[in-house]
Write a structure and sequence with these properties.
With 126 residues, the chain is mostly beta strands. The protein is built from no helices and 11 strands. Helices cover 0% and strands 47% of the residues. The strands form 2 sheets. Strands 2, 4, 5, 6, 9, 10 and 11 form a 7-stranded mixed beta sheet that branches. Strand 4 and strand 5 (46-51) form a beta hairpin.
Length: 126
């Protein structure tokens, strides 16, 4: 069992930055691949970024490539998403997710993830 708790969302102007954090409970955090998803009103949940067990592998959706950075600290059981040059279209609820799967990296579909946080809201004003 893994409990995920996100923090760091808020309101920011276009062009600004935010850092999202996800704290995970449990002693096996390093055995989970982690990801950030987002869901805007009326839209499906989509993957934003993913990171492998040790942090050596990362994946970014095309829409955030070059602007967002995912990282993890297995000693602190945390995964972060540094978001820069934010755009109004980045407005969404952002979710942290964990998967115990060991197939091809990354897993981009929500159903592949075993545990989810409650979400943190990000609003980017124009």
């Amino acid at each position: 069992q893994v409990v995920l708790v996100e923090s760091g969302g808020g309101l920011v102007q276009a062009g600004g930055s935010l850092r999202l954090s996800c704290a995970a409970s449990g002693h096996t955090f390093s055995s989970y691949r982690m990801a950030w998803f987002r869901q805007a009103p009326g839209k499906e949940r989509e993957i934003v970024a993913a990171i492998g067990w040790s942090g050596g592998k990362t994946y970014y959706a095309d829409s955030v490539k070059g602007r967002f950075t995912i990282s993890r600290d297995n000693n602190k059981n945390t995964v972060n998403l540094q978001m820069t040059t934010l755009k109004p279209e980045d407005t969404a609820v952002y979710y942290c997710a964990a998967t115990s799967g060991s197939g091809l990296f990354p897993s981009v579909t929500p159903k592949r993830y075993d545990y989810w946080g409650q979400g943190t809201e990000v609003t980017v004003s124009s």
